[in-house]
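Hello,

Following up on my earlier ticket. Below are the two sequence lines again, exactly as submitted.
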Amino acid sequence: MLDVAGLHAHYGRAHILDGVGFTVAAGEVAVLLGRNGSGKSTTMKAIMGLVPPSAGSVRFEGRDIAGQPPFRIARAGIGYVPEERRIFTDLTVLENLDVGRQPARAGLRSWDAARLFDLFPSLGAMRDRPGGRMSGGEQQMLTIARTLMGNPRLLLLDEPSEGLAPVIIERMVHAIAALKAEGLSILLSEQNLHFARLVSDRAVIIEKGRIRWAGTLPDLIAADDVREQYLSV
Amino acid sequence: MEDLLIQALNGLASASSLFLVASGLTVIFGVSRIVNFAHGSLYMLGAYVGWSLVTQLPEGLAGTSVGFWGSILLAALIVGAIGMVIEVLLLRRIYEAPELFQLLATFGVVLVVQDVALLIWGPQDLLGPRAPLLRGSTEMLGVRFPRYELFLIIVGPVVLGLLWLLFHRTRWGTLVRAATQDREMVSALGVDQRRLFTSVFFLGAMLAGLGGTLQLPRESVNLQMDLAIITEAFVVVVVGGLGSLPGAFLAALLIGELHAFGILILPRITLVLVFLVMAIVLVARPHGLLGRASAPSRGAAAAPDPPIGPTPRPLIVAGAIALALLIAAPLLLRDYEISVLTELLIFVLFAASLHFIMGPGGMASFGHAAYFGAGAYGAALLAKHLGAPMLLGLAAAPALAGLLGIAFGWFCVRLSGVYSAMLTLAFAQIAWSVAFQWVEVTGGDNGILGVWPDGWARDKSVFFYLTLVLCIGASLMLRRAVRAPFGYALRAGRDNALRAEAIGIDGFRIRWLAFTVAAVAAGIAGGLFAYSKGSVFPSTLGIPRSVDALLMVLLGGVQTLSGPIVGALAFAGLQEQLMRATELWRLIMGSVIIALVLFFPQGLAGAVQKAWGK
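Thanks for your patience. The regenerated structure is below:
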């Protein structure tokens, strides 16, 4: 589904990604784990074209999309949910969803507001509320729903559990499981192993812009040294 | 009583036209963050194109309603298409350029359009036809009122309503509102923002064109329409609150009525009334009537200013050589050339003073001529009324400019971005109208004549050396200040106001001081300017002079310390040469500016610096 190889990216002179490479298989939930500042968000942004990769390839369903503008990458079928949520605060819930809307995709059940309100019932109760007057948890659901309106085949979720109350995190776990059941492939980034193990099949560990370890979640749980070296704070 | 009613209705009719132009401006600004100086040119083109269409209708259509109204609509659409072309060919390529750089580009367009219009339609005023169906007048409340004016009064609210529907009831409108807040996110959701921007430009330009072409039955079409309307439209947009359509409508009503009644009540201050009101509104409501404090649009992608390093050795050598040449210049040149060189030096200091607040300070000023002019008038008034010697006049120049800087700066540095820039413009216009209308003291439009240097400095070379010492000295001191702890604090506040405050920097005081220092430096330049010309006119503090300073700074490059020097020499030198060489100097100047913007988006000095870095 997604095959990232030798990806480099810079912010000005700062070298953030130093040859990142990993894959996400169709239908799986992979998690990009790493500490603050390890390059998780930049990896997501580089895949999405929001940070232009300076070298390397990003193959999505066999096509190299590295260097394309973000809107083409989105239309190719990658949905991006940013860490800071970036809700349009002046727009209502329904309008936010409308911005994300893209044509239906062959072989995929297309998303609409009604289906998304089934997935996130609390959003349905506030369809005309401006995004700026929602709680953090509600905004997190809206930002995922908005991206789903583009009918992606692969979802990039940047730190979806950050700053959320435990009860909301629980709902997020259910939502991700439901999306996986729909056949969606998901790449999420996390610092929080606890959340990651609840939803992911496979983990990729990034540190200082390089991939240091990759394997299944059970393997990671068993590998104390790996967790100690790359994840403990 | 009848007069009042007629004036009120007149005011409403003007408000409608003003709203059409301002609404386009505010929509374009909202999405692209471009301060589109060329919006007035689009308005003017609307009037000209409409005139051509109406007067050249084929036999069967001439004089008919279909012909007239069809021409009006077609003209608006054509101007919309012109706006699209400008966006695609020019602005699209420079969205990533530093803030305000686009302003320079659109100003290049203004110059080009002025000469193109001159070439196509000639210098004479053109009279448009009356509107079919709306000839004559209607009796209302006991007064006869032209029907066309009544029609215009209705157009404003109708357009406001249609725009509201467009932005709130269509997906396109939703996308535009979303892009106003975070265009990068919109594109990550699969929206082609280039096409979105182009369509927004089409809409904005079409509204400007419609505003212009609807003026046909009201007033003659002429080449001054562009700059006359753009200043007012800016005022309306800023008073209403950037990006707010209802705000623009309210502000247009306010400004329209002010004009109408100002003439009746306070004819002496009509010229400044609008700016006075803008200043009051901005001081009371820093984001305009209906505007809100908004975070800068995400994805605007302005890279942070690069740090300022020590002056590289080759630059010191080049500067020393230039200085040596300047010192030797009077021995080699004739009087006229020495005068030109003197003026260039004055502009170098003027540009350097504006750069001081724009570059390291991060505050754009659209009214920097106020301090240049204050310096000139300070020197001239002392010379005229007290017969003061030149050195006293030259000392009074920065003093008066500095006082003005302290007073105006206290208000201006509280605001940010375009609001702050517009407030500087308002104050500059207020200063201008004092010079223009306080005839007893300033001589009004006739200016103050006979401001000549004292005997010892009357020789062109001596005055040149005096100018050289003062201008280069002051410019070097500004340069030094940028590298002093004060300059660090100033730049820290520009890069991140909150963090700077958090480490104990009093941002307001630092910016206020910087503003005052810049005013003092501009005042020195202004004082020298008065003595070099022997006279002072209100134009020394007019808008064109402020625009000149902006162009010099932007051309040279905001992000480099040498930018203003290079920019002043390039701009003033080029303008001087072109104006002597050709009638069409605007066309050439505008094209040069556009080319520079496209090929050297870091400004001239920035481009050299970049090439050197490689």
